[in-house]
Amino acid sequence: MPVIGHFAGGLNFADMVKELDPAVLNADGSVATPANVISYGKWINTIINLVIVGFVMFMLLKAYNKTKKPVVEEAAGPSELDLLTEIRDALKK
Fold first, then answer.
1. What is the DSSP string of 58-78?
2. Is 34 in contact with 22 (CB distance < 8 Å)?
3. Is the residue at 86 inside a domain?
4. What is the pLDDT of residues 41-76, one digit of tens each?
5. How many CA atoms lie within 13 A of 89 on its CB side?
6. Are 57 and 49 in contact, with CB atoms under 8 Å apart?
7. 5: helix, strand or coil
8. Are 14 and 45 in contact (CB under 8 A)?
9. CA distance linking residue 7 with residue 26, whole number of Å
10. Into how many domains does the chain fold?
């Protein structure tokens, strides 16, 4: 996400969290119970990365399809009208 963060003014989405319960500290300052948080910033990072990768794959496939030779349709033979005319002429004889 460095490119997106750069254009967003240095914002790092991975650091975005919603704290539900704060961390509980012991008397000596060590963490007894870590904070209970929802890390929605990581989810935003994942969605943005998915969109970027999907767009790049779309552009690659679009460019690949342009490089393929166009399929030339072969002559399918006589049309239905020609066959019916031929049958009619054969029945007249």
1. HHHHHHHHHHSPPPPPPP--S
2. no
3. no
4. 888 888 888 888 899 999 999 999 999 888 777 777
5. 6
6. no
7. helix
8. yes
9. 41
10. 1
